[in-house]
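Sample entry follows:

_____
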Amino acid sequence: MRLLFRITILLTSFLFACQPLKPTDISPPTVLRELTPSAAETPVTTQTTIVYPSLATATSEEKIKTIELPEWVKRSWTGGLLVLPYRDAAGGRPSKSILVNPDNGDTFIVDLQKEFYHYYWRNNEHVVFFHEGDCKGSPEMISELNVFTSILQVYQAKDHPEYVVSCTPDSGDEIVRINYEHSEATVEFVEPSSGAISFLTNPDDGVTDISIEVSAYEQYVAVVQFDGDFEFPDFRLPVYGNKISIYDLRTQRLVLQYSEEEGILSEVSYISYGNLAYMRGNTPCLIMIVSLSKKCIHNIPNQFPDATIILSEPDYAVGRLGFLYFSQHQGGYCFYNIFAGGIGCPTDYLPAFKNQIIINHSLSPSGNYLLVEYDREGCPVPWCGHADESRVGLINLTNGELFELGASDQYYLGDLFRPLHPDPWRPRSFDEPS
């Protein structure tokens, strides 16, 4: 939950007024050019040989290797370092990881010399790789790369000093959870100090709780609900409710509630402290929790009348809401200016995306870079299946430069999660320069 207090203050002061938003045009970036990587930008495989020892008998020196990483990797203090799994050919698990500089397209391949099936950023310094296992269980071996010291350390999983996360997305919000064992799925509150469990929503009110999203500092929880009998559809289908409720977790009381005639998508997100975005049918809506008010943004479906609209993951840039749109033959990534009401779509200005559909994406923590997966067919998961010949591109949003990274198969991208999971961007820390 990466939030900035200055964003909160600006957004809250504006949104509380709840004034109508007037559409304006957003000019395209002054520089929008497609780049073909030169020979100098071609990925260079590290020459360091990484030999995985028998950990039961290995010395401490054998468990630690040094990789000569480029200086731009070590200087990536602006949330601008991308790490993706990489393989030379389609099929099988990757044994390499590619590091990408989104400012100029420079790449560097780290050859781990051993297949891995999952990876993630443990913090803004360490990337963790899982070896010998699968997502149904736990890894047998873990390697961890420090991108600032260039040290790769190998562990037996049981000896890793930090908590090991699972393969599947996990909000980490243990203060609330949905219990599906009741006749209707119900939200439970877990008391942080004692672990005592109580019902946050009524288990016998005829309302099924579909999804939850917790705000920063665990102050509010938004619950998407269905008033009446509900059957959860197939996992790969979008899930909709007809009611959204917000509870204050400090008092465990209902703050506000909206019922909608059009379906409410189960995926919601806090765009700032105390401001929630959700989809009502094909129209994004903003809830200002403190002022107990709501504003739905009709400019977006009006501009894309025949397209499906999906909210992006939160972008904490002041006054900006990201979203995907897609129809049968075209789909892109756009930003909506909350203050001016204008819409700008960086993918629409780039020739590489003509007649393409953006099927997946990942926005960097700084909001300056956008990783996209695109194809002529398919659409964002779970609305339809993954395309067979999709490609990956990286956009520098500050100047509009595009770096085409190649076929998705090279990067071992799954088709079950949107936005991309695990998050491939180096997380920011609040003490680094912005």
Q: What stands out?
A: Helices lie at 5-17, 71-74, 299-303. Residues 381 and 418 are 6 Å apart (CA to CA). The chain has three helices and 29 strands.
